[in-house]
Amino acid sequence: MDTIQSDSYPIFFDDSLSELITFIKQGKYSRTFVLTDENTSAQCLPVLEPLLAELDNYDLIEINAGEESKNIDFCVGVWKMLIDFGADRKALMVNLGGGVVTDLGGFVASTYKRGIDFVQVPTTLLSQVDASVGGKTGVDMDGIKNIIGTFTQPKAVFMSAAFLKTLPERQILSGLAEMLKHGLICDADYWKELKNSDLSLPSVELIYRSVEIKNAVVIEDPQEKSIRKALNFGHTIGHAVETNSILNDERPLTHGEAIAIGMICEAWLSHKKAGLPKEHLHEISTVLNGLYPKYPVPDTCHNVLYELMQKDKKNTEKQINCTLLTKIGCFSIDNICTEDELCASLRYYAAL
Amino acid sequence: MDTIQSDSYPIFFDDSLSELITFIKQGKYSRTFVLTDENTSAQCLPVLEPLLAELDNYDLIEINAGEESKNIDFCVGVWKMLIDFGADRKALMVNLGGGVVTDLGGFVASTYKRGIDFVQVPTTLLSQVDASVGGKTGVDMDGIKNIIGTFTQPKAVFMSAAFLKTLPERQILSGLAEMLKHGLICDADYWKELKNSDLSLPSVELIYRSVEIKNAVVIEDPQEKSIRKALNFGHTIGHAVETNSILNDERPLTHGEAIAIGMICEAWLSHKKAGLPKEHLHEISTVLNGLYPKYPVPDTCHNVLYELMQKDKKNTEKQINCTLLTKIGCFSIDNICTEDELCASLRYYAAL
C-alpha cells in the first residue's frame, strides 16, 4: 500500500509500524511521550512496546477512555506531566488511540511551549478515516464538541490495520459512517463499492480510499473556509443528536450512529432544497437505516437539538448552515436551513 | 506617526484609537468582545467607550489584574463566557490591557472554535513594546511563564500613548527595560539615544523605534527558530529571577526590573564568552544599575534559579542557552552556559 502525502506530512499505511520507529529515530527528539487511554494501553500498546524498546527512552502518559475525558482538565493533567518530565521543545508526542486521544493529544502538543511535534497513531476505524487526518485538534467544553482547539498538522500519521482486529463491531460501524460519507460527498463509485462490500471489517484498500478523499479535501482548504465544509455532511444534525445522547443516554450513540441519523436527515433536506433525486434519497436512507440501529428522535426533543445546532461552531449568527448533496457523489455547502425544515427532516427519519 | 506593517497585520500608532473602530466596522464581525482586567476597566475602558458606542453591540469580559490571573482557570472562565454569549467563528476579541490581558486573550481567541480574530490594544509601555507584537500568546502553569500557548498573529495592533499617562513610574521603567534591550541587541544608536533621553515617559518616537526593531526581528523568524532568539537577551536569567520573585516576594519585581538584572548578568557572560568589550559591559551595568533598584540575589538562591532556568521553554535537554552580545548593538544566539558561569554572573551583579 502506498504512502499518502498530505500537505506537510506523510500518512503511512504499514501494519508493522516500523516506519514509526524509523521516524522517531531520524527526528532526533530529546524525548518521546506516548499518550494512551486505558483501552489502548491494554489493547494497542503491547503491539508497539517491542518497537519502542529500540528507542533510548520514552515515557507513557495515560488518560481515561471515553468522550468524557476529552476536556480541559485532562489537558491540564497531561501538560503538567510534560512539565514534570521536563519535556522541552524538541520532545515528541505519539498519540496512540481513538479520536479522544488523537484530538486531545494534538491540542496538548500544539500548545505546550507553543507547540511541540506530534504524530498520530489512530487505533480505531473512526480515527483512521476521520480524526487523524486534517490537522484539527481539540477538546469539548460545556457539552460542545471540539469547541476549544487549534488547526495544527501532525508530523506524520501511521495507520495499522492490526489495531482494528480487536475492535467491537459497533466501533467498526462507527468509522464506517464516515467512509460512507466520503463516498456520498465526493465519489459515487466508492459509495457503490462500499455498500456492496462485506462491511464487518473494511479492507485496507477501502480505508486507504477514504483517507485519500478526506486528505484531498483538507489539503485544498485546511481552515474550513470553503470546500472542507463538505465533510460536515450529516454532522449538523448528527452532532446535535450525538451530544444530546451523550448528555442523556446510559449507553450513548457512537459518533457514526449519530452521523448516520444526521446523513439521513440531511439527505432529506438535500432532496427538498438542493435537488437530490428522490431515488438517491431512498437509496441513502435504505442503506444507512439497514446498517445502523433505529434511535428514537421524538418531536419533544426537537427544541433541545435545535439549540445544540445553534451552539455548533460551524454556525454563525445563529443561522444553521448545512452541507447538502445535489446527487450521490456531489455536495453543496452553506445551505441555510430553518428550524421548521430541520425538524421536518428529523420527522422523516423517525417515520422510516 | 506612520503605521508599521508586520507580517500579516498593521500596527497603528494613533492616540485617538479611531482606527480601531474603523477596523471593527469594516471587519463585519458578528459580535465584539472587549477583554479587560480590573485596572484597564477603570483606567482605559472610559477612553474606549465613547468609540465603542458607535458599534451595534459589544460585550465586556473582565479578568482579575496581575500575573496570578494568567493561568488556564481564567482561560476556562473566558471560554465559557464566549460560549454563553453564543460567540461564533466570526466574533472578534479586543484585548485591552497589559501583557496578561493581551497574552491570555490572544490564547483564548486562538483556541476558541479553533481560532477567532483578535486585536491587541496594549495599555502599558511593556505590552506596547513587547507583548503585543510578535504573535506569541500564552498563560503560565506551575510557576512557569507562558508555558501553554500558541504562535498566532493578531489581526491588528493599536497603540495609543494616551494610556501611558496614567501609568506609575515603576510600570514605565518595566517597559523601558525591553526598549533598552532592543537597542543593545540591534541598534547601538538607539541605545545611545535612549540612555541620553528623559526616560520618565519615553516619547512616541522612541516607542515606535522599539516596535520597529522587534517587528523586524519577528517577521524574519516568527517561530523563534533562529534570530528571534535575539529577543531573549537578559531573559534566561531574568525570567528565573522574575519567577522566583513572584513566588517569594511580597512585592515582586516587575518584568523589566528582573530583565534588567538578567541583562547585567548576561552582559557579564557576553564579556566572558562572546567578546563583549569590557567598556561596553561597564556601560551597560552602569546604565541599568542606575535606572533600576538593587535587588538581593544571594548565593543561597542560585540553586533555585538554576532549576527554574532548566524548566524554561527556551532550553532543551537541560542545557541553558543564552543570547549574548558581541558588542552593543550585536547579538549572538545559542551560547551554552554552565551552572558555574551562570552563578558567577549572578555574583557579578550582586557585587556591583
From TrEMBL, chains A, B:
Predominant localisation class: cytoplasm
Biological or metabolic pathway of the protein: Metabolic intermediate biosynthesis; chorismate biosynthesis; chorismate from D-erythrose 4-phosphate and phosphoenolpyruvate: step 2/7
Pfam annotation, one family: DHQ_synthase
Stated family: Belongs to the sugar phosphate cyclases superfamily. Dehydroquinate synthase family.
Domain 3-dehydroquinate synthase N-terminal: start-end pairs: 61-172
Protein name: 3-dehydroquinate synthase
Top-level taxonomy: Bacteria, Pseudomonadati, Bacteroidota, Sphingobacteriia, Sphingobacteriales
MF terms in GO: 3-dehydroquinate synthase activity; metal ion binding; nucleotide binding
Catalytic reactions of this protein: 7-phospho-2-dehydro-3-deoxy-D-arabino-heptonate = 3-dehydroquinate + phosphate
Record-listed E.C. numbers: 4.2.3.4
Highest taxon above the source species: Bacteria
One Gene Ontology biological process: aromatic amino acid family biosynthetic process
Organism name: Mucilaginibacter terrenus
Range of residues in the leader sequence: none
Designated gene of the protein: aroB
Class in the EC hierarchy, top level: lyase
GO cellular component, one term: cytoplasm
Keyword Nucleotide-binding: yes
CDD domains for this protein: DHQS
Assigned keywords, A-Z: Amino-acid biosynthesis, Aromatic amino acid biosynthesis, Cobalt, Cytoplasm, Lyase, Metal-binding, NAD, Nucleotide-binding, Zinc
Subcellular location, record wording: Cytoplasm
Function comment: Catalyzes the conversion of 3-deoxy-D-arabino-heptulosonate 7-phosphate (DAHP) to dehydroquinate (DHQ).
Needed co-factor(s): Co(2+); Zn(2+); NAD(+)
PANTHER family named in the record: 3-DEHYDROQUINATE SYNTHASE (PTHR43622), 3-DEHYDROQUINATE SYNTHASE, CHLOROPLASTIC (PTHR43622:SF7)
SUPFAM superfamilies in the cross-refs: Dehydroquinate synthase-like (SSF56796)
